[in-house]
Amino acid sequence: MTADATSEFFDFCPSLAFIAAADGTITRSSKALAARFEARLGSSPTLTSLAAPDERETVTAFLQTLAKTDGPASCVFAVPEQAGGQTKVRCEARQGASGSIHGVLELIPTSALGESAQIQLERMLLRSVMDTLDIAIWVVDPTGKFVFQDGTGVKTSGMTPGDLLGSNVFELYPADTLPPVRQAIAGAASHYKTEAHGVHWETWNIPLKNQAGETEYCAGLTLNISAAVKTERELKHQLDTIQEQQRAIQALSAPLIEVWDKVLTVPLIGVMDNDETNKLIERLLAEVSRSGARFTILDLTGVEALDTSIASHILRLLASLNLLGVEGMVTGVSPIVAQTMVGLGVDLGSVGTHRTLRDALRYCMRELYR
Question: STAS domain location, by residue (predicted)?
């Protein structure tokens, strides 16, 4: 880049950009930086002097980090304002082969609360999460020693918050369960699910890093997901039951099955004629009124052929269900039946369709419990 191009860059760059010597002395800055911190940039400004007095050690450590690494580094420090108060900035920079430092400052938005009030709010939020959710939150240092352990999930696991403080995670638990913790201490987050003593847990291991990017602690968030696992297993059991029932009633053309509370399914099998369809409509509407169903699933997986009359009956059935306040939907439309419908000009645009019975049942479950 020519001298003129460099000057133009620093004149028009909207970022708070700078070039500094290895000791942090700012040798060139953008007009945006000079305008924002004019009061802090004297005749010989440095990154260290730009920072608040109690945070200059942070900048000094940052400069030392830049000197030891080939890649970019960052740190956060406060800059005193002329009108009072401080502004937090994030400094991201990289040191070149010549020793000069090239970087930018990014203003960090401040909270609407004061710093002490913000800390208090964060503590209240953390306590609320730990008391409301069945979650265990724990923290270990790089050696594996527990420095924090709290949350309702700790009690669920049979312990009292703080029981593990001072203990070492690498001594308490089997070696084959510890790689995620080691990964987090090394700087890589992990996520996994486990089961212990009949309780199902979902865990996130998160590295907690300092301003220099070094991992100081490993935090673990362990959530009790036993209720979700139970629901999933019940759903699987229900689906398995449906499949068994379908195999047991192959001789029936259209059985009515209450697969879940308020959910009816009608697996249509074979070739449906007008008489069978009319009987189905009568039986289904009666069953809907009796059971108070909210959803009815017409499963066409077993339908071998469909004509215009049967298609119109199905549409009439779905319309009748809608008048009763029941959401009707169609699943299992085979390629042959789909081609027939298109060829006959049957419009299912206003009808809910799902690829499989499983997909339709999942949809009903979500709607029932949301």
Answer: 253-364
Whether residue 162 is predicted with pLDDT greater than 80 in this model: the reply is: yes
Model confidence over 31-55: pLDDT tens digits? 999 888 887 887 788 999 899 888 9
CATH of the structural domain 229-369, one choice from 3.40.50.720, 3.30.750.24, 3.90.1150.10, 1.20.1090.10: 3.30.750.24
Distance of CA 118 to the CA centre of its chain: 25
Residue 299, burial from CB neighbour count under 10 angstroms (0-12, 13-18, 19+): buried
Structure confidence by residue, pLDDT tens digits, 133-150: 899 999 999 999 999 999
| Helices 226-248 and 357-369, axial angle in degrees (round to 10) | 140
Q: What percent of the chain has pLDDT over 70?
A: 92
The band of 251, judged by pLDDT with boundaries at 50, 70 and 90, is: very low
SS3 state at 192: strand
Q: Which CATH architecture has domain 3-107?
A: 2-Layer Sandwich (3.30)
Positive or negative CA dihedral for 283, 284, 287, 288? Answer: negative
Residue 332, number of CB atoms within 10 A of its CB: 21
Q: Give the sign of the dihedral formed by CA 167, CA 169, CA 175, CA 176.
A: positive
